[in-house]
Write a structure and sequence with these properties.
Elements (H helix, E strand, L loop, with lengths): L2 E2 L11 E2 L5 E7 L2 E7 L11 E5 L4 E7 L2 E5 L4 E4 L5 E4 L5 E5 L4 E7 L7 E5 L7
Antiparallel strand pairs: 1-2, 3-4, 4-11, 5-12, 6-9, 6-11, 7-8, 7-10
Length: 129
C-alpha cells in the first residue's frame, strides 16, 4: 500500500499515502485493487500515443485533485473529468488518460487487469491543450 504511515493505529487498519509519480497500487484484496495515477511523463497529454481496452473488466476512475482527461473510443474522444465524479469505462472500450502535474486520480479495477487481458492500439494522440 503506497507509503505506509507509522502511527499508533488500531489493529486491522492500514493508512498510506502516494509515494511516487505515475501509476501506483495502493490496496490489493482478493480479486480487486485500488490504485492512483499522479503526474508522470507517460500521463502527459503530449505523450499519449496508445489507448487500451480491457477484455474482461470495467475500470473506474475518480479525479480527486488537479485536472485529468479521459480519451474514449477508437477516436479518443476527450472527456474532461470532474472532481469526485465516478467515470466507469466499460469492458472492451478503448481509453487513455492524461493528468496535470497536480492531479491524483483514484482507480478501481480487477487485480488481474494487465497485458494478459488488455489490448493496446497505437493512437495519433493530441498535442492540444
Amino acid at each position: 500500500m503506497g507509503q505506509k504511515e507509522e502511527k499508533n493505529l488500531p489493529e486491522g487498519l492500514e493508512v498510506g499515502d502516494v509515494s511516487k509519480e505515475g501509476y501506483e497500487v495502493l490496496v490489493r484484496y482478493q480479486n480487486w485493487r485500488v490504485a492512483v495515477i499522479t503526474y508522470g511523463e507517460m500521463f502527459d497529454r503530449k505523450n499519449i500515443r496508445r489507448l487500451e481496452s480491457h477484455r474482461e473488466t470495467d475500470e473506474v476512475f475518480v479525479l480527486m485533485t488537479g485536472k485529468a482527461t479521459l480519451f474514449i473510443g477508437r477516436e479518443g474522444f476527450p472527456v474532461d473529468m470532474e472532481p469526485w465524479k465516478i467515470c466507469n469505462v466499460k469492458r472492451g472500450v478503448w481509453h487513455g488518460i492524461c493528468v496535470s502535474a497536480d492531479a491524483r486520480v483514484l482507480i478501481c479495477e480487477n487485480e488481474d487487469t494487465g497485458p494478459g487481458n488488455t489490448d493496446y492500439m497505437d493512437w495519433a494522440g493530441t498535442d492540444a491543450g
